[in-house]
Amino acid sequence: MPSTISLQGSREKATSSVDNPGGIGISEFLGAKNFLITGGTGFLAKVLIEKILRTNADVGKIYVVIKARDTAAAMERLQKEVVGTELFKCLQQIHGTDYNSFVERKLVPVVGDISSTNLGIVPELANEIAEQVDVIVNSAGNTNFHERYDVAMDINTLGAFRIMSFAHNFRRLTLFLHVSTAYVNGEKQGVVLEKPFCLGDTISNEPGSSHTSKYKTALLDIENEIKLAFNSRRHSDDSQFHKEMKDLGLQRMVDPVVLGYGKGLIRSFLGDPDCILDVVSSNEIGEVLRWSFF
C-alpha cells in the first residue's frame, strides 16, 4: 500500500493547477516534475514509469535507481528490463521512430543501492538529484518471504530510512511516496484486525533499546550461523536434503506458472477448488500511485 509524505505545500501547488474540468489536475501537477524512483526494474515501478511517460509527455527527468556495477550495466538493465518490455509497446506505438530519443531524454539510469548511505550514488550525481528532483517514489524492496530477518530488515526497513535521510538534502522536494509491498498475507480468514500497541510497546523489549542492558545489543554472529548451517547439513540424510532442494525449486516455479497461465500458455492445472485467489490489476495499482501524487 502506498503512503505519502507531503512537503513544502505540495497540496497548494497541486490545487492551484486544477483548471481542467475533465480531471482533478494530476496531469498538470506532474508536468515538468522530476522524479527519483527506486526499484525501477521491479514489477510496480515499471507500471508507474510507463503510465507517467504515457500520460505526461511533458514530465521532466525520471532518475531510475538500478543496482548495477556501473552506468553501462545500469543502462543495459534499463533497456532490457524496463523500456524494452511488452509493457512499453503502447508507448512505442505512440512515439514511433522517436521512441528511443524520447526515452533517453526522460529516463536517467542511476547506479545505486538502498543498502548504502545516499543510496551509494556518486557525489556529483547525488548533488544533481538533490537539486532537481521534486518527487521521490520508493518502490525498492525484498519480496522474498523466506529471507533472513537481518537481510529483510536492512533492505525493507533501513532501506526506506536511508532514502528518507537522503531526501533531507533535496532542495525542491514536494512529495515522498513509499510503496510498502506488492503482496499481503492471505492465509488468515475473516476480518484481520491490527493489534493495538501503546506508545513504546513495540520497541521497549527489543535488545539494545533504552530499557535493556547495553551488553545485550543484538549483533550478528556469522561464525555461529555458518556452523549451524553445516551442522544442519551433516545431521540430515541425503534424501531429506534432496527433498528440501526440490521444494525450493517448486517455490521458484510459482511465478513462471502464474505468468504462463496469465498469458494463456497454460490452459489448466491441478489445484484446490476451494482456494480463493484475490488478484488486483497492476494497472489499478499504477493509477492509485498516480492519484497519490495529488
TrEMBL record:
Thioester reductase (TE) domain mapped to chain residues: 37-213
GO molecular function: alcohol-forming long-chain fatty acyl-CoA reductase activity; alcohol-forming very long-chain fatty acyl-CoA reductase activity
Any one GO BP annotation for this protein: long-chain fatty-acyl-CoA metabolic process
UniProt-listed InterPro entries: FAR (IPR026055), FAR_NAD-bd (IPR013120), NAD(P)-bd_dom_sf (IPR036291)
EC category name: oxidoreductase
Keywords: Lipid biosynthesis, Lipid metabolism, NADP, Oxidoreductase
Reaction(s) the record says it catalyses: a long-chain fatty acyl-CoA + 2 NADPH + 2 H(+) = a long-chain primary fatty alcohol + 2 NADP(+) + CoA
EC number: 1.2.1.84
Family in the record: Belongs to the fatty acyl-CoA reductase family.
Free-text function comment from the UniProt entry: Catalyzes the reduction of fatty acyl-CoA to fatty alcohols.
Protein name per Swiss-Prot or TrEMBL: Fatty acyl-CoA reductase
Organism: Eleusine coracana subsp. coracana
Gene: ga03746
